[in-house]
Amino acid sequence: MSMEESMKGIDGGEQTKGDLTDSFLDAISALALKAKENAPAPYVQPSTDLSVIKMDEYDETEIPEKTIAKIEELKSIIASIESRPAVTTEIQLSKTYKINYAFELNRAQLEAVTTIAGPVLVIAGAGSGKTRVIVHRVAFMLENGISPQEILLLTFTRKAAFEMTARVQELLNDNSVQKVFGGTFHAFSNYVLRKYANLLNIPVNFSIIDSEDSADTIDLVKSELKLISKDVAFPKKNRIQEIISSARNRNLTIREVIEDEFTGLVEYLDQLEMIRQGYARYKKICHIFDYDDLMDELRDALRDNLMFRKLVQEEYKYIMVDEYQDTNVVQKEIVEFLSEAYRNILIVGDDAQSIYAFRGANYENILRFPQKYPDCKVIKIEENYRSNQKILDFTNDIIRNAKIGYKKRLYSKITKDALPFVKKFYDQQKEAEYIVSKILEYREKGIALNQVAVLVRAFWHARFIELELNKRGIPYIAVGGLAFNERKHVKDVISYLRIIQNPYEAVAWHRVLKYIPGVGIVSARKIIEKIIAEKGLNIDSFEKSKFAEGLRALVEMLKAASDTSISLAHKLEIISKYYTPILMAVEPDYQIRLLDIGVLVTLASQYDSLTKFLTDFALDPPSKRFGNKTTPLIDEGEDKPLTVSTIHSAKGLEWYGVFIPHALDGMIPSIRAIKNIEELEEERRLFYVACSRAKEDLTITMPSYVSTYSGFMSYPSRFLVEISKDKFKYQ
Q: What number of other Cβ atoms are within 10 A of residue 336's Cβ?
């Protein structure tokens, strides 16, 4: 049959070839239209554009009943505070002071400074001058005749405490402020425990180990308990250390921590409990305290030893705590024991900046303060001296959506027309190129590179930006990398000093013995057992061993370096002479590493006491960071480097311009936090902290997608979607 013959009209009439073709196509079109009308609607990929996306497109975070009850309880506490009538009376000072407090402080700051009796809660928003409040409050107490020895100022960095007391000394031109104890919780615990060691029945020469040494000790205990397993799922030493520390910081059992956070490790619960107990015994035998021991020992002594508690309470009648939102449960209990006699306790903090839950900080501590002290005075400091009002409008909106927290609205007298800027790019490379180009624009406008920061949720978020900085030869420092005190060769040299201070320091012995030829794990254990049993190392016991010569050289070096008549720097020079050949044999870049040992010698020259040097090194290690830096095309003598930092490491700092890249849901907030409401709320506070570091310019960027082992991220951060669109410019 021909084509023409097959093409008959639908009504049976004769048609031309052209007519038939048209009719056929019309019929097909009609059938297609009918099929389309009856077919289900096709799936349309929802837009991930920030300008149109809605919050209902994000998965809701389920909230367990127990958490709902806790949130409601906290809201009730906060509501009772918010309902208190505002104080409007003018503050009258009773005499003339060296400092014109009324002139130098705003109304809220002045109230916090002049209220020196009874419990006081100061909610100080970001950039509101909380340091100024503490400095002037210490000065006000001294000007009112309070003895400096009765004042205790607890902070989270030694640098912060030193700067505060130094500013008081400058304001008053009075050296007596040096008698105020200002320092970290750990430094205070170390001081008090050593001072009252005999009363508390603890060794006065205990050693302090950091988190990495703690993990190494746990590994030794695991080996001693013969728990070395070929099972790949058995937790590694750092994870075990994290679990034990988390339990102690939060007053929980190992079981509670595992069932709450590490459900995949439930089958190893009995072994982990054995390791915890063995770890505690091991430290006691070797006179070792880890960071958590310092807190636990002080808390337990204050709780159980009434004589000790009374002595310390009489010593410190006025207590101030900075950054109270960062305290853990044990630190909170220490503060409560210290202050219960005189109740002159002031805490300063901001629940909106509680971002350290991973190391035990509990945001509830600051929220529950009025529950412990119902008669406390609550003072909010909301005037911001850092950021312009446009940035504050943006950050206020971030925290306005928080599920719980003290309500505050920061304001500033600093004005600027430009809104915070949010921009989306095709990929990570385009995002990096834009950020680095903007950084160079800042420089052309005369804004120094060190007034600019790139803040990231996790350091790998900055990898494209670092490559672009390197390519263009822009100097930068990376904050959040490997710290000076964490470098292997630095820890080695410090281990020799720790043995000199405490001959029973098993962790340090294990570290240095491994460098002696012929000494393995078993031999090292036997040597250390002899040291502990015989209260010293008798070389004759190992005279016939294959490592006798190496052991003798080590003992001779330690004996020479232990000479009490030589300086600490000289001790380190003796250690360095012994250690250099070891370093040369194991590290190809030994020359660079030797420079670090030179830094140690320089640091040691500032100390007369070995114990003080080791304590400071453990509790407040040198802040030098070893981030990647290029050999810049821009001369470093001309430009100080910009900062690339994790948000956690940026808290308390500020810059003219801040960039926050990778603002995709699953990255900010982290994908691991999205299913847990309390972790999600901490991510919100983290984003708030990042944005509130900016003084003049805030730029938030995102690629169109990022694909990782955790998933495919293409939606903008939910925290951006919640913010009113008139609070930022989007492109």
A: 16
Hunting for tokens 């001072």 — which residue is that?
A: 195
Residue 282 has pLDDT above 60, yes or no: yes
Looking at residue 42, what is its pLDDT?
43
The DSSP symbol for 417 reads: S
- Residues 6 or more apart in contact with residue 6 via CB below 8 angstroms: none
Instruction: Please tell me the distance from the alpha carbon of residue 476 to that of residue 457, in angstroms, as a whole number.
Output: 18
Q: Which tokens is 729 given?
A: 């410019």
Closest Cα to residue 562, out of 615, 498, 655, 639?
Answer: 498
Please answer whether residues 196 and 187 qualify as being in contact, where contact means their C-beta atoms are separated by less than 8 angstroms: no
Q: What is the DSSP secondary structure assignment for residue 520, as one 8-state letter?
A: -
Model pLDDT for residues 642-651, shown as the tens digit of each residue: 899 989 888 8
pLDDT per residue over 343-398, tens digit each?
999 999 888 887 777 667 788 888 889 889 998 999 999 988 999 999 999 999 99
State how beta strands 706-708 and 711-713 pair: antiparallel
Q: What is the CA radius of gyration of the chain?
A: 32
DSSP 676-726: -HHHHHHHHHHHHHHHTTEEEEEEEEEES-EEETTEEE-SBPHHHHTS-GG
- Helix (H) / strand (E) element for 317: namely none
Whether residue 113 contacts residue 140, with contact meaning beta carbons closer than 8 Å, is answered with yes
Do 209 and 279 touch, CB atoms closer than 8 A?
Answer: no
- pTM value is 0.77
